Structure formats: structure tokens, C-alpha cells
Amino acid sequence: MFSFDQLRGFVAVAEELHFGRAAERLSMTQPPLSRQIQKLEREVGVLLLERDRRHVVLTAAGEAFLAEARRLLALAERAPDLAQRISAGSSGTLRIGFTAASSYGVLGRLLNAVEEQLPEIDIELAEMVTREQVAALSSGELDLGLGRPPFDSEVFGSRIHHREQLLVAVPREHPLAARPGPLRPDDLIDVPLIMHSPIKARYFYDLVVSLLPISHQNVVHTVSQVLTMVWLVAAGRGIAFVPASATGLGVEGVVYQALEGLPENPVELHLLWPRASRNPVVRRVLEIGPR
After folding, report:
1. Which of 27, 44, 148, 267 is in Cβ range 3.0-4.6 Å of 203 for a Cys bridge?
2. Are 243 and 166 within 8 A, CB to CB?
3. CATH classification of 4-87 is 1.10.10.10, yes or no?
4. 45 class by beta-carbon count within 10 Å (0-12 exposed, 13-18 middle, 19+ buried)
5. Within the chain, which residue ranges are assigned CATH 3.40.190.10?
6. In 3D, which of 126, 162, 163 has the Cα closest to residue 145?
């Protein structure tokens, strides 16, 4: 197999078309350069240069080989730099999972920050509910998640990326839509309720029942996605408790009301990553994200 030294010698001779000048350019003497070219031609199996005492000319095979030799040398020169940048986390691939609700502004801001500070990172996105993200992070299919707690702190690192209000989504024609806010919990007694699934939307279910006296006999639908809840509200099926980012959905026929007595910004969205992650990009992204 030919060596990179042989390729460099060939390229120098091909560009100078003179063994003496090529040897001087390479800071070597002419005899070892001539031996390099001969060995290279034996390895390739064809004549690359026609030479006599006065002239050096590339053969047709030599012309074609020159282009490939330059390409191989360029790749070899770039490889250490690429490896260093990947090791430092400034280049590479980041696979991000996100919930549908987190895409309403939050995801875009994260992507913009990564693009601005780490422009050579390739980002792959996958919309998943939190439990699917956890499984994908565990299996190595994802590097970073935007999801809702709880998480196994021994397996995953996490930190709060975004906080927001919990609002009441009300059909526009409902009397509560015209009520001067904020609404009181008593205003919601006997109002049909579209509720989060305790299995597929566990975080929101646990949050709502911990903050409000929910009458389960009023629950008319149980769903897992915020968008689905808002569409059902627009259809007049009931009210729903949604994160403030849902206002960005632009669904017609829905009014969003604040609710009295709730903590400020109780809805949390976390960045989530495997503690055993070996992807240097994860570390760099966590450095630029909000703390």
C-alpha cells in the first residue's frame, strides 16, 4: 500500500514537472524522491510519469491519479482538526427529543442558541412524549431531551430549561371566557373538563391534581397531547388546564384565562441527558443553555 509521503512526493513532482525542484520543495534530495515515485508506481501498477533527462510529463493515468492524491492528502490534513473539534464538542451530531408542547417557542430558542454558538453541529429532531424520550436516551437513540419530570437521577442528568404559567383554556362562547380574570377555582365547579391522561401525560396530571380540587365526575375526555386538548376546547367540549405556551398554537375559538391561587410559573420543562453520555456535543450544549 502506498504511503502519504509517496503521495506528497508524487504531487510535488506532478506540479513542478521537475524532480530537482520537487525535491527542493520537499526539503529532500532527488534520489530518495525518485525511489518514492518508483515505489508508488509499482503499488499502483501503472506508469504515472514519463520522464527523461530533460522532461517530466504526466501520463493520462497520472493526471487522474493526481486529482485523487490531492483529495486524499486534503482529507488527511483535515482529519486531525476534525477529530479535535469533535472531541471538543464544537463539531458532530446532536439528536434532540422534544415534546409537542415544548416546540411552542422553547425548542426554537434552544436551536437558535446552538446554531449561533456551535454552527458546525448537525441537529436531528424527534418529537416524542417524555416516556419515549427516556427510553430513547437509555438506548442511545437520543443525546438530549426536552421533557417533563420525574426522571431517574441516577441514570439521567437534568435541569430546568423553562418555566411557565398554567392557564385555563376556555371555549370562546363559554361564560367564563368573558369573565374578568383571573378565574377562581370555585368558578370551575360543574364545568366539563378535558383532563390529562394519568398514564400518558403523567406530569401534567400530577401537577393539576396537586394544585386544584379536581372533580373527576366532571371529566368528559382524557387525552395526552396539549394540542388535542386545545382543539377539543375549541369544539366546545369543555375547559382544560394547559401551559401558557399553548397560546402560541393559534387555535381559533379558545380564550386563555389565568387562575387565582396558583404558584407563579409552576409548569417546568427540563433538559435531560444520560449521565453516561460520551457525546462531547452534549457537554457543549449544556454550557450554552440556560442554567
Report:
1. 148
2. yes
3. yes
4. exposed
5. 92-163+268-288, 166-263
6. 126
Beta bridge partners of 259: 183
Tens digit of each residue's pLDDT (9 = 90 or more) over 44-100:
888 888 887 778 888 888 888 888 888 887 777 765 555 554 554 445 788 999 987
pLDDT of residue 18: 82
pLDDT mean over 215-239: 93
CATH 1.10.10.10 positions along the chain are: 4-87
Tell me the C-alpha distance between 214 and 166, whole Å: 15
- Residue 168 Cα to chain centre, angstroms: 31
Q: What is the mean pLDDT of residues 120-138?
A: 89
φ/ψ (deg, to 5) at 166: -105, 120
The three grid cell numbers given for residue 267, joined into one nine-digit string = 409548569
pTM: 0.65
Neighbours of 116 (CB within 10 A): 9
Take residue 1 and report the three cell numbers written for it: 500500500
Q: How many CB atoms lie within 10 A of CB 200?
A: 15
